[in-house]
């Protein structure tokens, strides 16, 4: 166990301390920060602090009520001024005292028409603030719950006629999560599996294996390598997920405070339950490729075959969402290389039978264990071969 731990520690530290790993680790957080900064800059550039004006010819705003302040808003609420007639409002506009004024006609209750006069294009945020101002005054005297319900508008829910599960607007993240997770999963598998595969081939080429294998068994060496490189990938995934959630929190709290997002904890666990064993399985299979290959170029070409199936659910996202219980969707959620994306994606739009979830995860766990054993066998049979590739027939039939 001590020797396995030493291999694990060596493999983990030699990758995480490299400049290219640190750069890859920081690339996603830096992209998240860039997105946040772009969003904040666009909001600030779109903000004009000058007040808005209005002329009420209908008499509905004789005693105007200011709407409640928005919580955690990035920009302050604009002041809304009342003018006795359109001439005074126009004078204020030309004098740059206000950025626009609105004329509420006498027939507003019948027509619902409001005219806007501005010298420049009025931002959508300013228009929304005036719209909320009108709505709050029209609803003055109503219970707060009714006011909030009417201002927020209808909440759309998509429900299939043959399904008990439904997806509402604030659960859209449940659909995006498996797609974003699958994208990060693909990157982590490519980088981490590449680390392990390249390390094994390089150690074979420079004959380091001849020295290492005299100090520990093939199973100890392979277990330590797979575990070490697995933790390298999990370090990337965990860091990216944390930064992604932090980015989402900042956007919801400060940039789009009206956005409400609901994320089911059980759905998050389902994603993790499929991602982790699939990640172990693919890493072990890539290790087996590295143990059987004769050179780095050959190993990298074979490793590319594992990334293609992971992309299949992205190509077939429309059929999966539209028909989550079809034979195609079921097959993709049971096939180990496509299950990490397909199964959570189906769970986001329909209620999955417990046996399908259990079968898919069980297959992933069993294949992960078998893949580790298979990688150890490939290492034992092919590690000291130089210039000659270990065939699949030998790998499956040879006893020693």
Question: What would you say this structure looks like, in words?
Answer:
The chain has 400 residues and is of the alpha/beta class. It has two domains: 2-38 and 166-397, no CATH class; 50-153, D-Maltodextrin-Binding Protein, domain 2, CATH 3.40.190. The protein contains 16 helices and six strands. The longest helix is centred in the middle third of the chain and has 38 residues, at 218-255.
Summary, kept brief:
This protein is 66% helix and 6% strand. The protein is an alpha/beta fold and 400 residues long.
Keywords:
single chain, 400 residues, alpha/beta, D-Maltodextrin-Binding Protein, domain 2, 2 domains, four-stranded mixed sheet, two-stranded antiparallel ribbon, elongated
Helix/strand structural class? alpha/beta
What can be said about the biggest beta sheet? 4 strands, mixed
Number of strands: 6
What would the principal axes of the Cα set say about the shape?
elongated
Helix coverage percent = 55-70%
Percent of residues in beta strands: 5-15%
| Poorly predicted parts | none
| Count of individual helical segments | 16
Number of domains: 2
**How far apart are the first and last residues' alpha carbons, in Å?**
23 Å
Task: Estimate the mean pLDDT confidence.
Answer: 75
How do the strands line up in the largest sheet?
2-1-3-4
Rg is 30 Å
The helix/strand series, from N terminus to C terminus, equals HHEEHEHEHHEEHHHHHHHHHH
């Amino acid at each position: 166990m001590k020797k396995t731990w030493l291999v694990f520690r060596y493999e983990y530290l030699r990758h995480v301390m490299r400049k290219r790993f640190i750069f890859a680790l920081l690339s996603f957080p830096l992209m998240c920060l860039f997105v946040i900064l772009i969003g904040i800059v666009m909001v600030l550039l779109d903000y004009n602090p000058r007040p808005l004006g209005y002329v009420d010819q209908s008499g509905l705003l004789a005693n105007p009520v200011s709407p409640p302040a928005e919580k955690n808003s990035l920009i302050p609420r604009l002041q809304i001024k009342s003018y006795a007639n359109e001439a005074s409002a126009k004078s204020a506009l030309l004098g740059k005292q206000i950025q626009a004024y609105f004329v509420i006609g006498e027939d507003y209750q019948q027509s619902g028409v409001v005219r806007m006069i501005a010298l420049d294009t009025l931002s959508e945020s300013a228009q929304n603030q005036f719209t909320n101002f009108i709505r709050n005054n029209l609803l003055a005297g109503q219970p707060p719950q009714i006011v909030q319900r009417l201002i927020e508008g209808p909440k759309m829910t998509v429900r299939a006629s043959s399904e008990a599960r439904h997806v509402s607007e604030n659960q859209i993240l449940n659909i995006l999560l498996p797609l974003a997770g699958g994208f990060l999963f693909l990157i982590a598998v490519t980088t981490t599996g590449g680390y392990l595969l390249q390390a094994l081939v390089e150690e074979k080429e420079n004959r380091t294996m001849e020295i290492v294998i005299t100090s520990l068994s093939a199973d100890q060496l392979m277990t330590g390598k797979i575990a070490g490189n697995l933790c390298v990938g999990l370090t990337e995934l965990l860091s990216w997920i944390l930064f992604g959630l932090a980015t989402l929190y900042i956007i919801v709290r400060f940039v789009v405070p009206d956005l409400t997002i609901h994320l089911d904890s059980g759905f998050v666990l389902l994603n993790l339950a499929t991602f982790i064993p699939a990640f172990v399985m693919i890493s072990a299979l890539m290790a087996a490729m590295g143990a059987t290959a004769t050179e780095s170029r050959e190993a990298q070409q074979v490793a590319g075959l594992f990334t293609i199936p992971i992309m299949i659910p992205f190509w077939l996202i429309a059929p999966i969402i539209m028909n989550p219980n079809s034979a195609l969707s079921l097959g993709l959620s049971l096939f180990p290389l496509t299950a990490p994306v397909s199964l959570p994606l189906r769970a986001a739009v329909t209620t999955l039978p417990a046996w399908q979830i259990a079968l898919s995860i069980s297959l992933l766990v069993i294949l992960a264990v078998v893949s580790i054993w298979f990688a150890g066998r490939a290492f034992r049979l092919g590690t000291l071969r130089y210039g000659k590739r270990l065939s699949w027939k030998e790998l499956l039939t040879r006893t020693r």
